Amino acid sequence: MDIGSIFLVLAILTPVVLFIYRPFMERNNPTASNSEQEYSSLLAKRDQVVATIQELDDDYNLGKIPDEIYPTRRQALLQNGVEILRQIDTYQNTSATGTAQDRLESAIETRRQTFGASQNSPRKNGM
Asked: Is residue 77, in this structure, part of any structural domain at all?
């Protein structure tokens, strides 16, 4: 190998090594604070409750859930959602319009419209 080949290999290898090694050198990885993680967790729980209520409503409308069970399950999920929204309100420090239950119902309706779950499917009880 002549000297020109060695310099060419070094010229190519040096930027590649620096590019690969750069993430290991950067130590300022921003980590979320504990309160930000809790807030994110509450938002995820809210989305999960909204999705569960929507699924419950759809199953009831399709006749998969008896009339005796549906109101108690839905009310329990609404109470859980209201509690989560109250906890979210403590993180946001804003005065929200309407009650937590009204906002939860609004979120359910928004999700239903967004994800197209209110298609023309056979409905029970005329809903």
From this structure: yes
Look up tokens 């839905």; give the residue.
74
Domain enclosing residue 96, as ranges: 35-114
**Overall pTM > 0.85:** no
- Report yes or no on 101 lying in a domain: yes
pLDDT tens readout for residues 34-51 = 778 888 899 999 999 999
Distance between start and end Cα atoms, the chain:
82
Q: Which residues of 109-125 are buried (b: 16+ CB within 10 A; e: fewer)?
A: eeebeeeeeeeeeeeee
* 20 within some domain: no
Tell me the angle at which helices 70-92 and 34-61 cross, rounded to the nearest 10 degrees: 160
The sign of the CA dihedral 52, 104, 80, 88 is: positive
Number of domains observed in the structure of the chain = 1
Residues 46, 84: contact at Cβ < 8 Å? yes
